[in-house]
Design a protein that fits this description.
Largest sheet: 4 strands, antiparallel
Order of helices and strands: HHEEHHHHEEHHHHHHHHHEHEEEEHE
CATH class of the largest domain: Mainly Alpha
Helix content: 40-55%
Radius of gyration: 31 Å
Distance between the termini: 90 Å
Number of strands: 10
Shape: elongated
CATH topology of the largest domain: Ammonium transporter fold
Oligomer: single chain
Length: 578
Protein backbone atom coordinates (compact mmCIF):
# COMPACT_ATOMS: atom_id res chain seq x y z
CA UNK A 1 0.00 0.00 0.00
CA UNK A 2 1.53 3.28 -1.13
CA UNK A 3 -0.35 5.73 1.07
CA UNK A 4 -3.75 6.09 2.67
CA UNK A 5 -4.30 8.84 0.11
CA UNK A 6 -2.72 7.12 -2.88
CA UNK A 7 -4.48 5.46 -5.81
CA UNK A 8 -4.35 2.08 -4.05
CA UNK A 9 -4.91 3.41 -0.54
CA UNK A 10 -7.64 3.12 2.03
CA UNK A 11 -9.10 6.57 1.37
CA UNK A 12 -9.43 5.73 -2.32
CA UNK A 13 -11.70 2.80 -1.44
CA UNK A 14 -13.57 4.66 1.30
CA UNK A 15 -14.32 7.41 -1.21
CA UNK A 16 -15.58 4.80 -3.67
CA UNK A 17 -17.88 3.37 -0.98
CA UNK A 18 -19.29 6.85 -0.40
CA UNK A 19 -19.99 7.11 -4.12
CA UNK A 20 -21.91 3.82 -3.91
CA UNK A 21 -24.02 5.24 -1.06
CA UNK A 22 -25.06 8.07 -3.38
CA UNK A 23 -27.58 5.57 -4.77
CA UNK A 24 -29.51 6.01 -1.52
CA UNK A 25 -29.39 9.78 -1.90
CA UNK A 26 -30.66 9.67 -5.47
CA UNK A 27 -33.42 7.26 -4.44
CA UNK A 28 -34.60 9.60 -1.67
CA UNK A 29 -34.48 12.75 -3.83
CA UNK A 30 -36.41 11.13 -6.66
CA UNK A 31 -38.95 9.49 -4.34
CA UNK A 32 -39.61 12.68 -2.39
CA UNK A 33 -39.99 14.84 -5.50
CA UNK A 34 -42.51 12.48 -7.12
CA UNK A 35 -45.90 11.13 -6.07
CA UNK A 36 -46.45 8.43 -3.46
CA UNK A 37 -48.09 6.03 -5.92
CA UNK A 38 -44.72 5.59 -7.66
CA UNK A 39 -42.38 5.42 -4.65
CA UNK A 40 -41.75 1.69 -4.91
CA UNK A 41 -41.02 1.97 -8.63
CA UNK A 42 -38.44 4.71 -8.03
CA UNK A 43 -36.71 2.65 -5.35
CA UNK A 44 -36.57 -0.42 -7.59
CA UNK A 45 -35.01 1.55 -10.44
CA UNK A 46 -32.29 3.01 -8.23
CA UNK A 47 -31.57 -0.41 -6.78
CA UNK A 48 -31.38 -2.14 -10.15
CA UNK A 49 -29.22 0.60 -11.71
CA UNK A 50 -26.32 -0.55 -9.61
CA UNK A 51 -27.05 -4.27 -9.67
CA UNK A 52 -27.57 -4.55 -13.43
CA UNK A 53 -24.73 -2.12 -14.06
CA UNK A 54 -22.33 -4.21 -11.99
CA UNK A 55 -22.92 -7.30 -14.11
CA UNK A 56 -22.51 -5.64 -17.51
CA UNK A 57 -19.60 -3.49 -16.34
CA UNK A 58 -17.72 -6.63 -15.34
CA UNK A 59 -18.55 -8.41 -18.59
CA UNK A 60 -17.95 -5.54 -21.01
CA UNK A 61 -17.87 -1.99 -19.63
CA UNK A 62 -14.65 -2.27 -17.62
CA UNK A 63 -12.72 -3.52 -20.63
CA UNK A 64 -14.05 -0.76 -22.88
CA UNK A 65 -13.16 1.87 -20.32
CA UNK A 66 -9.83 0.70 -18.94
CA UNK A 67 -8.53 -1.65 -21.65
CA UNK A 68 -5.73 -1.00 -24.13
CA UNK A 69 -6.50 1.69 -26.71
CA UNK A 70 -7.77 0.77 -30.15
CA UNK A 71 -9.21 3.03 -32.86
CA UNK A 72 -6.93 5.97 -32.02
CA UNK A 73 -7.90 6.17 -28.37
CA UNK A 74 -11.65 6.21 -29.05
CA UNK A 75 -12.32 2.84 -27.47
CA UNK A 76 -10.59 0.44 -25.11
CA UNK A 77 -10.00 -3.20 -25.96
CA UNK A 78 -11.93 -5.56 -23.63
CA UNK A 79 -9.50 -6.76 -20.98
CA UNK A 80 -9.47 -10.55 -20.74
CA UNK A 81 -7.18 -10.41 -17.69
CA UNK A 82 -10.24 -9.50 -15.66
CA UNK A 83 -10.95 -13.20 -15.14
CA UNK A 84 -7.66 -14.80 -16.22
CA UNK A 85 -5.55 -13.08 -13.57
CA UNK A 86 -8.04 -12.52 -10.76
CA UNK A 87 -5.48 -12.42 -7.93
CA UNK A 88 -3.35 -9.69 -9.51
CA UNK A 89 -6.05 -7.56 -11.10
CA UNK A 90 -6.35 -3.92 -9.95
CA UNK A 91 -9.68 -4.38 -8.21
CA UNK A 92 -9.52 -1.05 -6.34
CA UNK A 93 -9.54 0.85 -9.65
CA UNK A 94 -12.23 -1.47 -10.98
CA UNK A 95 -14.54 -0.85 -8.01
CA UNK A 96 -13.89 2.88 -8.18
CA UNK A 97 -14.93 3.04 -11.84
CA UNK A 98 -17.89 0.71 -11.24
CA UNK A 99 -19.59 2.98 -8.70
CA UNK A 100 -19.08 6.01 -10.94
CA UNK A 101 -20.69 4.12 -13.82
CA UNK A 102 -23.75 3.37 -11.67
CA UNK A 103 -24.09 7.07 -10.82
CA UNK A 104 -24.28 7.98 -14.51
CA UNK A 105 -27.10 5.51 -15.08
CA UNK A 106 -29.24 6.54 -12.12
CA UNK A 107 -29.49 10.25 -13.07
CA UNK A 108 -32.04 9.45 -15.78
CA UNK A 109 -34.42 7.73 -13.37
CA UNK A 110 -35.83 10.96 -11.94
CA UNK A 111 -36.34 12.75 -15.26
CA UNK A 112 -38.36 9.84 -16.67
CA UNK A 113 -40.16 9.06 -13.42
CA UNK A 114 -43.85 8.15 -13.03
CA UNK A 115 -44.54 7.02 -16.60
CA UNK A 116 -41.72 4.74 -17.83
CA UNK A 117 -42.05 0.97 -18.19
CA UNK A 118 -39.81 -0.79 -15.70
CA UNK A 119 -38.54 -3.28 -18.30
CA UNK A 120 -37.54 -0.50 -20.70
CA UNK A 121 -35.72 1.33 -17.93
CA UNK A 122 -33.77 -1.82 -17.04
CA UNK A 123 -32.69 -2.22 -20.67
CA UNK A 124 -31.58 1.42 -20.80
CA UNK A 125 -29.57 0.94 -17.60
CA UNK A 126 -27.81 -2.09 -19.06
CA UNK A 127 -26.84 -0.29 -22.26
CA UNK A 128 -25.52 2.92 -20.67
CA UNK A 129 -23.45 0.94 -18.16
CA UNK A 130 -22.09 -1.52 -20.72
CA UNK A 131 -21.31 0.77 -23.68
CA UNK A 132 -22.26 4.46 -23.53
CA UNK A 133 -20.49 5.54 -20.33
CA UNK A 134 -17.42 3.26 -20.60
CA UNK A 135 -16.45 4.53 -24.05
CA UNK A 136 -16.70 8.25 -23.36
CA UNK A 137 -15.11 7.83 -19.91
CA UNK A 138 -12.22 5.99 -21.59
CA UNK A 139 -11.42 9.13 -23.59
CA UNK A 140 -10.43 11.10 -20.48
CA UNK A 141 -9.91 8.56 -17.69
CA UNK A 142 -8.86 5.38 -19.49
CA UNK A 143 -5.92 6.61 -21.53
CA UNK A 144 -7.95 7.84 -24.52
CA UNK A 145 -7.50 10.91 -26.68
CA UNK A 146 -8.81 13.45 -24.18
CA UNK A 147 -6.14 12.41 -21.67
CA UNK A 148 -3.43 13.64 -24.05
CA UNK A 149 -2.32 17.23 -24.59
CA UNK A 150 -4.33 19.33 -27.03
CA UNK A 151 -3.17 22.89 -27.70
CA UNK A 152 -0.58 22.38 -24.98
CA UNK A 153 -3.07 21.52 -22.21
CA UNK A 154 -5.13 18.50 -21.20
CA UNK A 155 -8.87 18.24 -20.73
CA UNK A 156 -9.95 18.91 -17.13
CA UNK A 157 -12.74 16.87 -15.57
CA UNK A 158 -11.36 15.64 -12.29
CA UNK A 159 -14.45 13.81 -11.03
CA UNK A 160 -17.03 13.87 -13.81
CA UNK A 161 -19.02 17.05 -14.43
CA UNK A 162 -19.11 16.17 -18.12
CA UNK A 163 -18.21 12.48 -18.21
CA UNK A 164 -20.93 11.58 -15.69
CA UNK A 165 -23.35 14.41 -14.98
CA UNK A 166 -23.60 16.05 -18.40
CA UNK A 167 -24.00 12.61 -19.97
CA UNK A 168 -26.75 11.79 -17.46
CA UNK A 169 -28.44 15.14 -18.05
CA UNK A 170 -28.38 14.82 -21.84
CA UNK A 171 -29.73 11.28 -21.56
CA UNK A 172 -32.46 12.60 -19.25
CA UNK A 173 -33.49 15.28 -21.73
CA UNK A 174 -33.64 12.88 -24.68
CA UNK A 175 -35.46 10.22 -22.67
CA UNK A 176 -38.05 12.64 -21.25
CA UNK A 177 -38.52 14.27 -24.68
CA UNK A 178 -39.20 10.97 -26.47
CA UNK A 179 -41.23 9.59 -23.57
CA UNK A 180 -43.54 12.59 -23.25
CA UNK A 181 -44.87 14.37 -20.14
CA UNK A 182 -46.86 12.94 -17.26
CA UNK A 183 -50.59 12.86 -17.93
CA UNK A 184 -52.13 16.13 -16.74
CA UNK A 185 -48.85 18.06 -16.54
CA UNK A 186 -49.60 20.10 -19.67
CA UNK A 187 -53.03 21.33 -20.75
CA UNK A 188 -54.32 22.56 -24.12
CA UNK A 189 -56.30 25.75 -24.74
CA UNK A 190 -59.48 24.04 -23.53
CA UNK A 191 -57.85 23.03 -20.27
CA UNK A 192 -57.63 19.34 -21.18
CA UNK A 193 -54.49 17.22 -20.65
CA UNK A 194 -52.31 16.86 -23.74
CA UNK A 195 -49.11 14.99 -24.60
CA UNK A 196 -48.51 17.16 -27.68
CA UNK A 197 -45.99 19.88 -26.83
CA UNK A 198 -47.26 22.12 -29.64
CA UNK A 199 -50.73 22.22 -28.09
CA UNK A 200 -49.63 23.25 -24.61
CA UNK A 201 -51.36 26.35 -23.31
CA UNK A 202 -51.26 25.84 -19.54
CA UNK A 203 -48.77 24.15 -17.22
CA UNK A 204 -49.73 22.44 -13.97
CA UNK A 205 -47.40 22.10 -11.02
CA UNK A 206 -47.31 18.53 -9.68
CA UNK A 207 -45.67 18.74 -6.23
CA UNK A 208 -43.72 15.81 -4.84
CA UNK A 209 -45.33 13.88 -2.02
CA UNK A 210 -42.57 14.05 0.62
CA UNK A 211 -40.19 17.00 0.76
CA UNK A 212 -38.64 15.60 3.94
CA UNK A 213 -37.42 12.49 2.13
CA UNK A 214 -36.21 14.67 -0.74
CA UNK A 215 -34.20 16.83 1.66
CA UNK A 216 -32.71 13.74 3.32
CA UNK A 217 -31.55 12.60 -0.10
CA UNK A 218 -29.84 15.93 -0.74
CA UNK A 219 -27.99 15.76 2.58
CA UNK A 220 -26.89 12.20 1.82
CA UNK A 221 -25.65 13.24 -1.61
CA UNK A 222 -23.76 16.25 -0.25
CA UNK A 223 -22.03 14.05 2.34
CA UNK A 224 -21.17 11.37 -0.22
CA UNK A 225 -19.94 13.95 -2.72
CA UNK A 226 -16.83 14.43 -0.60
CA UNK A 227 -15.93 10.91 -1.66
CA UNK A 228 -17.14 11.49 -5.21
CA UNK A 229 -14.81 14.47 -5.67
CA UNK A 230 -12.09 13.55 -3.25
CA UNK A 231 -11.53 9.81 -3.66
CA UNK A 232 -8.85 10.25 -6.35
CA UNK A 233 -6.89 12.91 -4.45
CA UNK A 234 -3.17 12.21 -4.64
CA UNK A 235 -2.27 13.45 -1.16
CA UNK A 236 -3.79 15.07 1.91
CA UNK A 237 -3.09 18.61 0.67
CA UNK A 238 -5.02 18.06 -2.54
CA UNK A 239 -7.78 16.27 -0.62
CA UNK A 240 -8.18 19.26 1.72
CA UNK A 241 -8.37 21.61 -1.28
CA UNK A 242 -11.06 19.44 -2.90
CA UNK A 243 -13.15 19.29 0.28
CA UNK A 244 -13.00 23.08 0.69
CA UNK A 245 -13.80 23.97 -2.93
CA UNK A 246 -16.64 21.45 -2.97
CA UNK A 247 -18.13 22.94 0.18
CA UNK A 248 -17.74 26.59 -0.90
CA UNK A 249 -19.30 26.00 -4.32
CA UNK A 250 -22.24 24.09 -2.88
CA UNK A 251 -22.91 26.62 -0.12
CA UNK A 252 -22.75 29.59 -2.51
CA UNK A 253 -24.97 27.79 -5.02
CA UNK A 254 -27.57 27.02 -2.36
CA UNK A 255 -27.63 30.63 -1.16
CA UNK A 256 -27.87 31.92 -4.73
CA UNK A 257 -30.87 29.73 -5.47
CA UNK A 258 -32.61 30.72 -2.26
CA UNK A 259 -32.11 34.43 -2.88
CA UNK A 260 -33.01 34.20 -6.56
CA UNK A 261 -36.29 32.35 -5.93
CA UNK A 262 -37.08 34.68 -3.01
CA UNK A 263 -36.80 37.71 -5.27
CA UNK A 264 -38.72 36.15 -8.16
CA UNK A 265 -41.52 34.38 -6.27
CA UNK A 266 -41.64 36.55 -3.12
CA UNK A 267 -40.82 33.48 -1.03
CA UNK A 268 -37.75 31.20 -0.92
CA UNK A 269 -38.56 27.97 -2.80
CA UNK A 270 -37.67 24.89 -0.72
CA UNK A 271 -37.48 22.27 -3.47
CA UNK A 272 -35.57 24.57 -5.82
CA UNK A 273 -33.10 25.45 -3.08
CA UNK A 274 -32.46 21.75 -2.56
CA UNK A 275 -31.82 21.50 -6.30
CA UNK A 276 -29.48 24.46 -5.89
CA UNK A 277 -27.32 22.44 -3.52
CA UNK A 278 -27.07 19.62 -6.04
CA UNK A 279 -26.34 22.09 -8.84
CA UNK A 280 -23.34 23.44 -6.93
CA UNK A 281 -22.04 19.93 -6.29
CA UNK A 282 -22.32 19.02 -9.97
CA UNK A 283 -20.71 22.24 -11.19
CA UNK A 284 -17.63 22.00 -8.95
CA UNK A 285 -17.02 18.32 -9.72
CA UNK A 286 -14.87 18.95 -12.81
CA UNK A 287 -12.65 21.65 -11.32
CA UNK A 288 -12.62 20.75 -7.62
CA UNK A 289 -8.84 20.09 -7.73
CA UNK A 290 -8.01 22.87 -10.19
CA UNK A 291 -9.71 26.00 -8.79
CA UNK A 292 -9.25 28.12 -5.69
CA UNK A 293 -11.86 29.32 -3.20
CA UNK A 294 -12.74 32.43 -5.25
CA UNK A 295 -13.27 30.33 -8.35
CA UNK A 296 -15.38 27.84 -6.41
CA UNK A 297 -17.54 30.66 -5.08
CA UNK A 298 -18.32 32.10 -8.52
CA UNK A 299 -18.87 28.64 -10.00
CA UNK A 300 -21.43 27.99 -7.26
CA UNK A 301 -23.24 31.32 -7.64
CA UNK A 302 -23.71 30.82 -11.38
CA UNK A 303 -24.85 27.22 -10.78
CA UNK A 304 -27.45 28.32 -8.23
CA UNK A 305 -29.05 30.78 -10.65
CA UNK A 306 -28.60 28.57 -13.71
CA UNK A 307 -30.51 25.66 -12.17
CA UNK A 308 -33.61 27.82 -11.60
CA UNK A 309 -33.53 29.31 -15.09
CA UNK A 310 -32.89 25.91 -16.68
CA UNK A 311 -35.75 24.21 -14.82
CA UNK A 312 -38.17 26.87 -16.04
CA UNK A 313 -36.86 26.87 -19.63
CA UNK A 314 -37.10 23.08 -19.87
CA UNK A 315 -40.62 23.14 -18.44
CA UNK A 316 -42.12 26.34 -19.89
CA UNK A 317 -40.33 26.65 -23.23
CA UNK A 318 -39.47 23.10 -24.29
CA UNK A 319 -42.41 21.52 -22.43
CA UNK A 320 -40.24 18.60 -21.36
CA UNK A 321 -41.51 17.14 -18.09
CA UNK A 322 -38.67 16.51 -15.62
CA UNK A 323 -40.17 15.86 -12.16
CA UNK A 324 -36.90 16.19 -10.21
CA UNK A 325 -34.94 18.72 -12.28
CA UNK A 326 -32.26 16.23 -13.43
CA UNK A 327 -31.77 17.98 -16.77
CA UNK A 328 -31.08 21.33 -15.12
CA UNK A 329 -29.06 19.99 -12.19
CA UNK A 330 -26.89 17.47 -14.01
CA UNK A 331 -27.05 18.41 -17.67
CA UNK A 332 -26.83 22.20 -17.55
CA UNK A 333 -24.55 22.40 -14.53
CA UNK A 334 -22.37 19.53 -15.69
CA UNK A 335 -21.84 21.60 -18.85
CA UNK A 336 -21.25 24.80 -16.88
CA UNK A 337 -18.81 23.17 -14.46
CA UNK A 338 -16.72 21.79 -17.31
CA UNK A 339 -16.62 25.15 -19.12
CA UNK A 340 -15.75 26.85 -15.81
CA UNK A 341 -12.48 24.91 -15.68
CA UNK A 342 -11.39 26.81 -18.76
CA UNK A 343 -12.09 30.06 -16.94
CA UNK A 344 -11.13 29.44 -13.30
CA UNK A 345 -8.34 26.83 -13.39
CA UNK A 346 -5.53 28.49 -11.45
CA UNK A 347 -2.87 26.97 -13.70
CA UNK A 348 -4.39 27.27 -17.18
CA UNK A 349 -7.71 29.13 -16.94
CA UNK A 350 -8.52 32.25 -18.95
CA UNK A 351 -9.08 34.46 -15.90
CA UNK A 352 -5.70 33.49 -14.40
CA UNK A 353 -3.43 33.19 -17.46
CA UNK A 354 -5.16 35.12 -20.22
CA UNK A 355 -4.94 32.06 -22.48
CA UNK A 356 -7.95 30.62 -24.31
CA UNK A 357 -6.28 27.22 -24.79
CA UNK A 358 -7.87 25.49 -21.80
CA UNK A 359 -11.32 26.88 -22.60
CA UNK A 360 -10.98 25.67 -26.20
CA UNK A 361 -9.99 22.17 -25.09
CA UNK A 362 -12.91 22.05 -22.66
CA UNK A 363 -15.31 22.96 -25.47
CA UNK A 364 -13.80 20.32 -27.76
CA UNK A 365 -14.24 17.65 -25.11
CA UNK A 366 -17.80 18.76 -24.31
CA UNK A 367 -18.79 18.67 -27.99
CA UNK A 368 -17.39 15.16 -28.47
CA UNK A 369 -18.97 13.73 -25.30
CA UNK A 370 -22.33 15.38 -26.05
CA UNK A 371 -22.36 14.15 -29.64
CA UNK A 372 -21.62 10.56 -28.59
CA UNK A 373 -24.35 10.68 -25.94
CA UNK A 374 -26.96 12.20 -28.24
CA UNK A 375 -26.42 9.62 -30.97
CA UNK A 376 -26.49 6.67 -28.57
CA UNK A 377 -29.48 7.84 -26.53
CA UNK A 378 -31.70 8.81 -29.44
CA UNK A 379 -31.04 5.43 -31.03
CA UNK A 380 -31.61 3.53 -27.78
CA UNK A 381 -34.83 5.28 -26.69
CA UNK A 382 -36.35 5.15 -30.17
CA UNK A 383 -35.54 1.45 -30.38
CA UNK A 384 -37.17 0.83 -27.02
CA UNK A 385 -40.21 2.92 -27.97
CA UNK A 386 -40.84 0.89 -31.13
CA UNK A 387 -40.09 -2.57 -29.68
CA UNK A 388 -40.89 -3.33 -26.04
CA UNK A 389 -42.47 0.10 -25.55
CA UNK A 390 -41.14 2.96 -23.48
CA UNK A 391 -44.21 4.41 -21.79
CA UNK A 392 -46.68 2.85 -19.39
CA UNK A 393 -50.36 2.95 -20.31
CA UNK A 394 -52.51 5.87 -19.21
CA UNK A 395 -54.39 3.72 -16.72
CA UNK A 396 -51.14 2.44 -15.21
CA UNK A 397 -49.78 5.96 -14.92
CA UNK A 398 -52.92 7.38 -13.31
CA UNK A 399 -53.29 4.54 -10.81
CA UNK A 400 -49.56 4.38 -10.12
CA UNK A 401 -46.67 2.25 -11.34
CA UNK A 402 -46.32 0.66 -7.91
CA UNK A 403 -49.60 -1.14 -8.36
CA UNK A 404 -49.23 -2.22 -11.99
CA UNK A 405 -45.49 -2.77 -12.36
CA UNK A 406 -44.76 -4.28 -8.95
CA UNK A 407 -48.06 -5.46 -7.46
CA UNK A 408 -47.58 -3.00 -4.59
CA UNK A 409 -50.84 -1.40 -3.38
CA UNK A 410 -48.91 1.35 -1.63
CA UNK A 411 -45.35 2.01 -0.54
CA UNK A 412 -46.97 3.55 2.55
CA UNK A 413 -49.27 0.67 3.45
CA UNK A 414 -49.95 1.77 7.04
CA UNK A 415 -51.37 5.05 5.72
CA UNK A 416 -53.41 3.63 2.86
CA UNK A 417 -57.19 3.61 3.13
CA UNK A 418 -58.10 0.05 2.09
CA UNK A 419 -61.39 -1.88 2.31
CA UNK A 420 -61.89 -4.40 5.09
CA UNK A 421 -60.22 -7.58 3.86
CA UNK A 422 -62.31 -10.76 3.71
CA UNK A 423 -59.80 -12.62 5.87
CA UNK A 424 -60.46 -10.16 8.70
CA UNK A 425 -64.00 -11.47 9.09
CA UNK A 426 -65.08 -14.51 11.07
CA UNK A 427 -67.30 -17.13 9.38
CA UNK A 428 -70.42 -15.15 10.25
CA UNK A 429 -69.10 -11.99 8.62
CA UNK A 430 -68.67 -9.96 11.81
CA UNK A 431 -65.41 -8.00 12.13
CA UNK A 432 -63.03 -9.13 14.87
CA UNK A 433 -62.23 -6.60 17.59
CA UNK A 434 -58.64 -5.56 18.21
CA UNK A 435 -58.58 -7.79 21.30
CA UNK A 436 -59.90 -10.74 19.32
CA UNK A 437 -63.38 -10.57 20.87
CA UNK A 438 -66.57 -10.36 18.85
CA UNK A 439 -67.82 -6.82 18.36
CA UNK A 440 -71.00 -5.83 20.18
CA UNK A 441 -73.97 -6.34 17.90
CA UNK A 442 -76.10 -3.33 16.99
CA UNK A 443 -79.91 -3.85 17.03
CA UNK A 444 -81.33 -4.12 13.54
CA UNK A 445 -83.96 -1.44 14.27
CA UNK A 446 -83.33 1.48 16.55
CA UNK A 447 -86.38 2.34 18.65
CA UNK A 448 -86.58 6.09 18.84
CA UNK A 449 -89.05 7.29 21.49
CA UNK A 450 -91.17 10.33 20.82
CA UNK A 451 -90.08 13.58 22.45
CA UNK A 452 -91.23 13.97 26.04
CA UNK A 453 -94.24 16.06 26.82
CA UNK A 454 -93.38 19.69 27.15
CA UNK A 455 -90.22 19.48 25.08
CA UNK A 456 -89.18 22.71 23.41
CA UNK A 457 -89.70 22.88 19.67
CA UNK A 458 -86.73 24.72 18.26
CA UNK A 459 -85.02 25.06 14.95
CA UNK A 460 -81.88 22.94 14.56
CA UNK A 461 -79.00 24.45 12.58
CA UNK A 462 -75.65 23.06 11.51
CA UNK A 463 -72.74 25.50 11.32
CA UNK A 464 -69.60 24.39 9.48
CA UNK A 465 -66.46 26.50 9.87
CA UNK A 466 -63.39 25.99 7.65
CA UNK A 467 -60.32 27.95 8.66
CA UNK A 468 -56.57 27.89 9.30
CA UNK A 469 -55.28 25.22 11.65
CA UNK A 470 -53.51 27.86 13.71
CA UNK A 471 -56.85 29.49 14.55
CA UNK A 472 -58.51 26.43 16.06
CA UNK A 473 -57.73 27.11 19.73
CA UNK A 474 -59.03 30.68 19.48
CA UNK A 475 -62.18 29.44 17.74
CA UNK A 476 -62.79 26.73 20.34
CA UNK A 477 -62.41 29.23 23.18
CA UNK A 478 -64.70 31.74 21.50
CA UNK A 479 -67.46 29.16 20.95
CA UNK A 480 -67.08 27.89 24.50
CA UNK A 481 -67.72 31.37 25.88
CA UNK A 482 -71.22 31.41 24.34
CA UNK A 483 -72.04 27.88 25.47
CA UNK A 484 -71.20 25.87 22.34
CA UNK A 485 -69.15 22.90 23.52
CA UNK A 486 -70.16 20.09 21.16
CA UNK A 487 -67.69 20.14 18.29
CA UNK A 488 -66.68 17.79 15.49
CA UNK A 489 -63.22 18.61 14.18
CA UNK A 490 -61.60 17.31 11.00
CA UNK A 491 -58.20 17.98 9.42
CA UNK A 492 -58.79 18.70 5.73
CA UNK A 493 -57.07 20.03 2.61
CA UNK A 494 -58.76 22.73 0.56
CA UNK A 495 -58.81 26.23 -0.84
CA UNK A 496 -61.28 29.00 -1.56
CA UNK A 497 -61.96 30.97 -4.72
CA UNK A 498 -58.41 32.37 -4.57
CA UNK A 499 -57.13 28.80 -5.29
CA UNK A 500 -54.68 28.85 -2.40
CA UNK A 501 -53.50 32.43 -3.03
CA UNK A 502 -51.30 31.54 -6.01
CA UNK A 503 -48.18 29.91 -4.59
CA UNK A 504 -45.34 28.65 -6.80
CA UNK A 505 -43.78 25.18 -7.04
CA UNK A 506 -40.43 25.03 -8.88
CA UNK A 507 -41.23 28.29 -10.68
CA UNK A 508 -44.69 27.19 -11.87
CA UNK A 509 -47.78 28.79 -10.37
CA UNK A 510 -49.92 26.17 -8.65
CA UNK A 511 -53.38 26.53 -10.17
CA UNK A 512 -55.09 25.02 -7.14
CA UNK A 513 -52.99 24.81 -4.00
CA UNK A 514 -54.74 22.58 -1.47
CA UNK A 515 -53.78 24.00 1.90
CA UNK A 516 -54.07 22.30 5.30
CA UNK A 517 -57.26 23.48 7.02
CA UNK A 518 -59.39 22.55 9.99
CA UNK A 519 -63.12 21.94 9.60
CA UNK A 520 -65.26 22.49 12.72
CA UNK A 521 -68.89 21.34 12.71
CA UNK A 522 -71.50 22.18 15.36
CA UNK A 523 -75.27 21.69 15.51
CA UNK A 524 -76.98 24.38 17.59
CA UNK A 525 -80.47 24.90 18.90
CA UNK A 526 -80.30 26.78 22.17
CA UNK A 527 -77.67 29.32 21.17
CA UNK A 528 -78.78 31.68 18.38
CA UNK A 529 -77.05 31.02 15.07
CA UNK A 530 -76.22 34.69 14.63
CA UNK A 531 -74.33 34.58 17.94
CA UNK A 532 -72.35 31.50 16.82
CA UNK A 533 -71.41 33.16 13.53
CA UNK A 534 -70.43 36.38 15.31
CA UNK A 535 -68.25 34.49 17.81
CA UNK A 536 -66.53 32.56 15.00
CA UNK A 537 -65.85 35.69 12.96
CA UNK A 538 -64.48 37.46 16.03
CA UNK A 539 -61.99 34.62 16.61
CA UNK A 540 -60.95 34.14 13.00
CA UNK A 541 -60.92 37.58 11.43
CA UNK A 542 -57.56 39.03 10.34
CA UNK A 543 -58.63 40.84 7.17
CA UNK A 544 -56.37 38.73 4.98
CA UNK A 545 -57.09 36.09 2.35
CA UNK A 546 -57.47 32.67 3.94
CA UNK A 547 -59.42 33.61 7.09
CA UNK A 548 -61.92 30.91 6.16
CA UNK A 549 -65.61 30.35 5.49
CA UNK A 550 -68.72 29.71 7.60
CA UNK A 551 -71.52 27.57 6.15
CA UNK A 552 -75.02 27.41 7.70
CA UNK A 553 -77.45 24.51 7.04
CA UNK A 554 -80.90 23.56 8.26
CA UNK A 555 -81.03 20.24 10.17
CA UNK A 556 -84.20 18.14 9.92
CA UNK A 557 -83.65 16.12 13.08
CA UNK A 558 -81.03 14.72 15.44
CA UNK A 559 -81.14 11.57 17.62
CA UNK A 560 -79.06 10.80 20.70
CA UNK A 561 -77.98 7.18 20.25
CA UNK A 562 -77.81 6.28 23.96
CA UNK A 563 -81.24 7.50 25.05
CA UNK A 564 -83.17 7.83 21.82
CA UNK A 565 -84.00 11.47 22.54
CA UNK A 566 -84.54 13.50 19.38
CA UNK A 567 -84.79 17.10 18.29
CA UNK A 568 -83.90 19.88 20.70
CA UNK A 569 -83.54 17.60 23.74
CA UNK A 570 -80.93 15.43 21.98
CA UNK A 571 -78.60 18.42 21.88
CA UNK A 572 -78.88 19.33 25.56
CA UNK A 573 -76.54 18.26 28.37
CA UNK A 574 -78.47 15.69 30.52
CA UNK A 575 -76.56 16.65 33.67
CA UNK A 576 -77.36 20.32 33.11
CA UNK A 577 -81.06 19.48 32.82
CA UNK A 578 -80.97 17.41 36.00
Amino acid sequence: MESIYGSTGVWFLIGAILVWFMQAGFAMVETGFTRAKNAGNIIMKNLMDFCLGTIVFILLGAGLMMGEDVLFGLIGLPNLDLFADFANYDWSTFFFNLVFCATTATIVSGAMAERTKFLSYCIYSLVISAIVYPIEAHWAWGGGWLSEEILGVTYIDFAGSSLIHMVGGISSFIGALILGPRWGKYLDKEGKPTLNRREVKYIRAIPGHNLTIGALGVFILWFCWYGFNGAAAGDIVQLAQILVTTTVATASSTCATMIFTWIRNKKPDVSMTLNGSLAGLVAITAGCAAVDIAGAFFIGVVAGILVVVAVEVVDKKFHVDDPVGAIAVHGCNGLWGTIACGLFSTGTGLFYTGSFAQLAVQLIGIAAIAAWTVVCMIGLFQLLKHTVGLRASRAEEIEGLDKHEHGLPSAYADFAAVPLAAEMLDPEGVPFCAEGERAAEVPAVLSVPEPKQGSIAAKLTKVVIVTKQSKFEELKASLGEIGVTGLTVTQVLGCGVQKGAGEYYRGIKVDIDLLPKVKVEVVVSKVPVSQVVAAARKALYTGHIGDGKIFVYDVEDVVRVRTGESGYEALQDPEENG
